[in-house]
Amino acid sequence: MTKTQRPRRSCLAVPGSSPKMIEKAKGLDADQVFLDLEDACAPLAKPGARKTIVAALNEGGWGSKIRVVRVNDLTTHWTYRDVVEVVEGAGENLDCIMLPKVQSAAQIAWLDLTLTQIEKTMGFEVGRIGIEAQIEDAAGLINVDEIAAASARTETIIFGPADFMASINMKSLVIGEQPPGYEIGDAFHYPLMRILMAARANGLQAIDGPYVQIRNVDGFRQVAGRAAALGYDGKWVLHPGQIEAANHTFSPAQADYDHAENILAAYEWFTSDRGGRKGAVMLGDEMIDEASRKMALVIAGQGRAAGMERLDVWQAEPETVKTGV
Ligand code: GLV
Ligand code: MG
Description:
By secondary structure, this protein is α/β, with parallel strands linked by helices. It folds into two domains: 10-249, TIM Barrel (Alpha-Beta Barrel), CATH 3.20.20.60; 254-323. It is built from 13 helices and ten strands. Strand 9 and strand 10 (286-288) form a beta hairpin. The radius of gyration is 22 Å and the shape is globular. The two termini are 36 Å apart. The relative contact order is 0.10. The protein binds glyoxylic acid and magnesium ion. Residues 100, 134, 136, 160-163, 209-210 line the site of glyoxylic acid. It comes from Rhodococcus oxybenzonivorans. This is CoA ester lyase.
């Protein structure tokens, strides 16, 4: 599995200043955990949190989770120390650095170069640590194409609805929810789609940000469902109660997974010598061809990454095997 295919259905935010919450996160079923030095960490707690994070990463116990640290954004004076202390201290036990409020490709280039210098200095594998870029304001959104293409390290582009809503004066106080007064569509459709295009054009994952009403799991499912329907790979979770909903929403339904695997199996058979070398064939009531195979590959890939098992297995009819019809 390549780095950008690793599942990120649920990306759990954990304050870097809380050893207790970090310890708890190790046992949860999130695909990714990010230890936060930015907004979930008070300014006076940041220096101590860097040390807490380094210790927690080096201690291990994270299983197959993707281990990420969110540093402070580049308009603050904290960013370079966040990166240097965390990566020098725990670079071999860390998968990605998340950079918030990215506004330009130059900011990604800075992080890429800094990581390379630290990796060389420390004798770490150069280029292994990935980058996750958060898009959280108008400047970031209009530059997202260049941001997504700025470094081979980049693995995900993340929509940050809270900062985004504040930065464009959107009239809602509930992060991730629709602003009242705009009843004719989804107010987040444009940024979500814009980010998704930039991500896909560069082979990256697209991740939706937080939904803050942590007790409203139905609301979470609804918002996550919209992002998943567009093609997003996952969403942030702020509370253990949102994890199962995220994992479920961003995995294919069992019937869709089975159908995708069956399309792949049938197409492979019918295009083969024994299957009759056909390019477009009927599978049940549906005509399948090369484009169907490509769509099926996406769903099957998501299901395989989520560890799903195929329950309804298509097989070539004995008749078909004999005659190639
Ligand atoms: C996340 O960082 C957000 O601002 O929504
Ligand atoms: Mg933010």
